[in-house]
C-alpha cells in the first residue's frame, strides 16, 4: 500500500462493501422466489424454470472478469456504485416483461448484481494488510446472506404485493445503496499506486491466468460457491415439490441453509488465517461428500427374502433430517469459500481483480449450470434427489484431485529432503507448475507450525 489506512477507515470500507454486497446478492437470487410465481403464470417446465433461475448467474459470472479488471484500474468506489445503479434499472425494467423470452432477457440484466462480488473483494483487500485479509474477506463474503434475505422476505412481499411490486422494491433499495456508496465510500489506498503504474494491456492483466494454480482454485470455487448459489435458487422449489410446503415455509427453510452458508464465511476466513487454507479445504470437501451422499438417497423400499417370508423396510430423508444436513452442508461450504479467496491477495496482490474475477467467474458458472442441470435431471429421471447426486460427483472429484496433487507434491519434497510452501493450500506447487520471475508474486517461506 502507498498509504497506511486507519482502523476507522478500514472498518468503514469493510462495512459499506459488505452491506452493499448483501443487497446485491439478494437481488441476484431474486428468481428463487419470484421465479416460482412466474413459472405458475407462464406454465413453465422444470427445465425452463431452472434456466430462468440460472440466467442471472451467467451474467454475474461473466461480468466478474471485466469488473475485476476495471476495479484494478479505476478502484472500487465508482465501479461498485455505478454497478448498483445499473442493476437497479435492469430490475425495474424486468417488471414490464410478459413472455418467457422477455423474462430471460430481463434476467440477464438482473445478473449484473452478481459481479459485485469481485469489485468488493478487490476494494476490501486494498484496505487490509495480508495477515488480516483472510478475515476481512471472510466478513465481506458473508454478504452471501443476501440470498437468505430474499428467501425469507421476498415470499411475504410477493404474497402481499405480487412479484412485480416485489422487484420494484428491490430496485429502489439497490439504487439508494448505489448512491450512498458513491457518497460515503472513500478511495482505496492503492489508488495512487494504480495512478503511477504503467497501464497494462488486457493480455498483460490476464497473464497470471497461465498458471494452473488459478484454475485449481477455480475448480474448488465451482463447488463451494457455484453449488451454494444453485441450491439457494433451487431449494424453495425442491421443498415445495418433495415435502409439499407452501412458498413462505419453503423460503424460511431455504434461509436456514443460506444463512450458515454465508455468515460462517467469516469463521472460514479466520480459520484460513490461523490454520491454513489447505486444512480448511479438506474439512469442507470431506463433510460435503458425506452430506451430499445422504441427501442424494431417494426414498427407497427394501425387501429382504427371509426364511419365514419377506422382510420389508424403507428409508427416506425426513424434513427434519433434510434441514440438518443442508445446514451442515452450508456451514462447510462457507468455510471453503473463504479458504479459496484467502490465496488470491497473497499470490497476486496487484492482480486481485483479474485473478479473483476468473475464479469468481468459474464459481458463478457453476451457479448457472447447476440449476439448469437440476431441472433437466428432474425432467429426465423423475427423481428429485438427482440434484444432490450430481453435487456428490462434483465434490468427490474435487476432493480426490486435491488430495492427489498434495500427496504428489509432498513426495517430491521428501525426495529432496526439504519442506517448502508458499501457502498451506498446496505444498511446493512450483515443483510442478513453475512460474516465470515476472509472474511469481510471493517468495517461498517456511510453512506455519500449525500446517
Any overview of this molecule?
It comes from Marinobacter excellens LAMA 842. It is found in: Membrane. Keywords: Membrane, Nitrate assimilation, Transmembrane, Transmembrane helix. This protein has a single domain, classed as Up-down Bundle (Growth Hormone, Chain: A). It has 19 helices and 2 strands. It has helices spanning 7-28, 31-42, 46-74, 76-94, 100-110, 116-125, 130-141, 146-161, 163-184, 191-196, 202-205, 212-243, 247-258, 260-263, 265-275, 277-295, 319-347, 352-381, 386-416; strands at 300-306, 309-315. Strand 1 (300-306) and strand 2 (309-315) form a beta hairpin. Residues 421-451 have low confidence and may be disordered.
Please render the helix and strand layout as text.
Layout: H1 7-28, H2 31-42, H3 46-74, H4 76-94, H5 100-110, H6 116-125, H7 130-141, H8 146-161, H9 163-184, H10 191-196, H11 202-205, H12 212-243, H13 247-258, H14 260-263, H15 265-275, H16 277-295, E1 300-306, E2 309-315, H17 319-347, H18 352-381, H19 386-416
Antiparallel strand pairs: 1-2
Notable features of this structure?
451 residues, mainly alpha, Growth Hormone, Chain: A, two-stranded antiparallel sheet, 19 helices, 2 strands, 73% helix, disordered C terminus
Give me a quick take on this structure.
Keywords: Membrane, Nitrate assimilation, Transmembrane, Transmembrane helix. The chain has one domain (7-193, 205-409): Growth Hormone, Chain: A (Up-down Bundle), CATH 1.20.1250.20. It is 73% helix and 3% strand.
Amino acid at each position: 500500500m502507498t498509504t497506511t489506512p486507519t482502523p476507522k477507515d478500514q472498518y468503514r470500507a469493510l462495512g459499506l462493501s459488505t452491506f452493499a454486497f448483501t443487497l446485491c446478492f439478494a437481488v441476484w437470487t431474486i428468481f428463487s422466489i419470484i421465479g416460482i410465481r412466474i413459472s405458475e403464470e407462464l406454465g413453465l417446465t422444470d427445465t425452463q424454470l431452472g434456466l430462468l433461475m440460472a440466467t442471472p448467474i451467467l451474467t454475474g459470472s461473466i461480468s466478474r472478469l471485466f469488473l475485476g479488471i476495471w476495479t484494478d484500474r479505476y478502484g472500487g468506489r465508482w465501479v461498485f456504485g455505478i454497478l448498483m445503479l445499473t442493476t437497479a434499472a435492469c430490475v425495474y425494467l424486468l417488471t414490464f416483461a410478459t413472455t418467457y423470452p422477455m423474462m430471460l432477457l430481463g434476467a440477464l440484466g438482473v445478473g449484473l448484481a452478481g459481479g459485485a462480488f469481485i469489485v468488493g473483494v478487490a476494494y476490501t483487500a486494498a484496505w487490509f494488510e495480508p495477515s488480516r485479509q483472510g478475515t476481512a474477506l471472510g466478513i465481506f463474503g458473508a454478504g452471501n446472506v443476501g440470498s437468505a434475505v430474499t428467501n425469507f422476505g421476498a415470499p411475504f412481499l410477493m404474497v402481499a404485493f405480487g412479484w412485480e411490486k416485489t422487484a420494484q422494491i428491490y430496485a429502489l433499495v439497490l439504487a439508494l445503496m448505489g448512491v450512498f456508496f458513491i457518497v460515503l465510500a472513500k478511495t482505496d489506498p492503492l489508488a495512487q499506486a494504480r495512478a503511477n503504474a504503467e497501464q497494462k494491456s488486457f493480455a498483460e492483466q490476464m497473464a497470471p491466468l497461465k498458471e494452473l494454480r488459478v484454475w485449481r482454485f477455480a475448480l474448488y470455487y465451482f463447488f463451494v460457491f457455484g453449488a451454494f448459489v444453485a441450491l439457494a435458487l433451487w431449494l424453495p422449489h425442491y421443498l415445495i415439490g418433495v415435502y409439499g410446503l407452501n412458498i413462505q415455509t419453503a423460503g424460511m427453510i431455504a434461509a436456514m441453509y443460506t444463512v450458515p452458508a454465508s455468515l460462517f464465511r467469516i469463521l472460514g476466513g479466520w480459520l484460513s488465517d490461523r490454520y491454513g487454507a489447505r486444512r480448511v479445504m479438506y474439512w469442507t470437501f470431506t463433510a460435503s461428500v458425506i452430506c451430499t451422499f445422504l441427501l442424494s438417497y431417494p426414498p427407497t423400499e427394501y425387501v429382504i427374502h427371509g426364511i419365514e417370508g419377506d422382510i420389508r423396510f424403507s428409508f427416506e430423508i425426513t424434513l427434519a433430517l433434510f434441514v440438518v444436513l443442508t445446514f451442515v452442508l452450508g456451514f462447510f461450504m462457507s468455510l471453503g469459500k473463504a479458504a479459496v479467496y484467502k490465496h488470491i491477495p497473497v499470490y497476486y496482490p496487484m492482480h486481485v481483480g483479474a485473478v479473483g474475477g476468473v475464479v469468481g467467474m468459474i464459481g458463478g458458472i457453476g451457479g448457472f449450470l447447476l440449476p439448469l442441470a437440476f431441472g433437466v435431471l428432474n425432467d429426465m429421471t423423475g427423481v428429485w434427489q438427482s440434484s444432490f447426486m450430481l453435487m456428490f460427483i462434483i465434490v468427490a472429484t474435487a476432493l480426490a484431485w486435491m488430495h492427489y496433487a498434495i500427496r504428489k507434491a509432498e513426495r517430491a519434497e521428501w525426495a529432496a529432503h526439504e519442506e517448502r510452501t508458499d501457502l498451506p493450500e498446496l505444498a511446493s506447487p512450483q515443483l510442478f507448475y513453475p512460474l516465470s520471475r515476472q509472474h511469481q508474486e510471493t517468495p517461498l517461506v517456511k510453512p506455519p507450525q500449525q500446517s
